[in-house]
Amino acid sequence: MELKEIQAIIRFFEKSTLTELEIEKGDFKIRLSKLQEKEKPQKEEKTEEAKDPELTEVRSPLVGTFYIKDQEGKDFVRPGDFVNEGDTLCLIEAMKIMNEITAPKSGVIQEIKLKNGDPVGFDQVLILLK
Predict the structure, then answer these.
(1) CA-CA 20 to 30 A from 74: which of 6, 10, 27, 121?
(2) CATH code of the domain covering residue 123
(3) pTM for the complete prediction?
(4) 3-class SS letters over 62-118
């Protein structure tokens, strides 16, 4: 990754509402955080407490733009839809590349956390699957 790309990522991160960002590209890895060390364990504890054991969080593997609609404007999935493991749930565009996010298991879509075209951070919850 070139220095200009890294600088652009840092500028994006500073202006965004994201609190943490991690990117891996080949041998290159960068991790940015706005949290103080003492805030991190508190954040992790709150996340653990709120989890329903029957729900699976589908998380973003990268930073980009979230798309729940295809090119014709049809939703890939909607709450209440049954999906099979491996079905496409949404797309994340990163650096002009569309990345398919697939269902990690079969189940029913409980909630879609973002709107079409929203920016998405690394490891952000996209969809809840039951």
Answers:
(1) 121
(2) 2.40.50.100
(3) 0.59
(4) CCEEEECECCCCCECCCCCCEECCCCEEEEEEECCEEEEEECCCCEEEEEECCCCCC
